[in-house]
Design brief:
- By secondary structure, the chain is α/β, with parallel strands linked by helices.
- 28% of the residues lie in helices and 24% in strands.
- It is built from twelve helices and 16 strands.
- It has helices at 2-10, 45-53, 78-84, 104-111, 122-128, 130-138, 168-179, 188-194, 226-229, 246-255, 272-281, 292-301; strands spanning 22-27, 30-36, 61-64, 89-92, 115-118, 142-150, 154-156, 183-187, 211-215, 236-241, 258-262, 286-289, 307-313, 322-323, 339-347, 350-357.
- The strands form three sheets. Strands 11-10-9-8-12-6-13-16-15 form a nine-stranded mixed beta sheet, with helices on both faces. The chain has a five-stranded mixed beta sheet with strand order 2-1-3-4-5.
- Helix 3 packs parallel to helix 4.
- The protein is globular, with a radius of gyration of 22 Å.
């Protein structure tokens, strides 16, 4: 199952709107087939592994990182494919929350006389599938906030200069994060200040480009920005508020960008909850936020961050520098946003702390 989960991890960021699944088929102690969900979500992992195994799949055991699907989509159900291949046993890490499957794949396998074991490496599978589960159950992608800050939580000088807070190794790890997410979100202010490309620039991963998304309430992103000039490299979506200039929206669409209009909150600001729902409706499962202190603070206040990846550089900038997070309006310590440490790693001279953010 660990091998199946590793296959699934390799596909993260490349299979949306479908989950990234891994499948390993074993017969008489020997791996005879392996497969992972292909780019764009199909073919599915089970059919890839079965094609690899051929006749050796008959009487074998399949290890699958997520319950085989039971519904007809653009491809037939994977549960049926496993049955037709003559598998003797199927080991499944976790149940698929999609109501079109949700236990029906397991029931179909059992009805065909196949032994089913559920829950092997379930915790690890839950992390791999967290974004997909979020889209299905909460109608929004799983959201990871990435921060690169100093020891005292500063992300830029008072002048706005931030290149570079962390070292080269940490920046490369940041590009790996981009490659493992369906999309990257930045705020319009950060885009105007930094003019980023928001692409993955690691050798060998040039084809793994996430969708670039700008939260831009009034559509003020410049049409000559680097994002605009690089739409042939990776898609660009602009999320604006109701009442944004229609002529600007049309100009962006003419350039090839997708413009998504969502409602505003009572204070006139872009509704971040509505934005996340709109992104979920478009199939995104894993969203990486890199977009500046204002956007990070607003998402944290609205409870929309699921995972925090904090790169910490061994330097101090002081109180006059820009803080990574703005006012969260905590009145007592119990109001603090809490994180559960998942991983701590040394990345060159910097450290990388990954936390799951607790929900109240």
């Amino acid at each position: 199952m660990s091998a199946a989960l590793e296959l699934a991890r390799r596909g993260l960021g490349r299979t949306w709107p479908n989950p990234s699944v891994g499948c390993v088929i074993v017969r008489e102690g020997r791996v005879v087939g392996r497969g992972a969900t292909r780019l764009g979500g199909r073919p599915h992992a089970e059919t890839e592994a079965l094609a690899h195994a051929g006749q050796a799949a008959r009487g074998a055991t399949a290890y699958v990182s997520l319950e085989p699907c039971a519904h007809h989509g653009k491809t037939p159900p994977c549960a049926d494919a496993l049955i037709e291949a003559g598998l003797e046993r199927v080991v499944i890490a976790m149940e698929d929350p999609d109501p079109r499957t949700a236990g029906q794949g397991i029931a179909r396998l059992k009805a065909a006389g196949i032994q089913v074991t559920l829950g092997v490496c379930a915790d690890e599978a839950a992390r791999v599938n967290a974004g997909f589960v979020s889209r299905v159950t909460r109608l929004r992608p799983g959201v990871t906030l990435k921060v690169a800050a100093t020891l005292d939580g500063r992300v830029a000088l008072a002048s706005g200069i931030s290149k570079w807070i962390t070292g080269e190794e940490a920046r490369q790890r940041g590009h790996s994060l981009r490659a493992s997410h369906d999309a990257i979100l930045a705020g319009a202010g950060t885009v105007r200040t930094d003019d980023p490309a928001l692409t993955c620039r690691l050798p060998g991963l040039e084809a793994s480009q996430p969708v670039r998304i700008v939260a831009d309430s009034g559509l003020r992103t410049h049409t000559d920005s680097l994002l605009a000039r690089s739409m042939a490299v990776a898609p660009l979506w602009l999320v604006c508020g109701e009442g944004a200039p229609a002529d600007v929206a049309a100009a962006w669409r003419d350039r090839g960008a997708e413009v998504i209009e969502v409602r505003r909150d009572d204070d006139g600001r872009l509704s971040l909850i509505a934005m996340m729902t709109a992104l979920g409706e478009r199939g995104l499962t894993r969203l990486l936020v890199e977009g500046g202190p204002s956007l990070a603070t607003a998402l944290l206040r609205d409870g929309l961050i699921d995972t925090l990846v904090w790169f910490q550089a061994p330097r101090l900038l002081g109180a006059d520098a820009q803080a990574a997070v703005g006012a969260l309006e905590a009145q007592v310590l119990e109001d603090a946003i809490r994180g559960r440490p998942v991983r701590l790693a040394q990345i060159g001279a910097d450290t990388m702390l990954t936390l799951d953010i607790a929900r109240s």
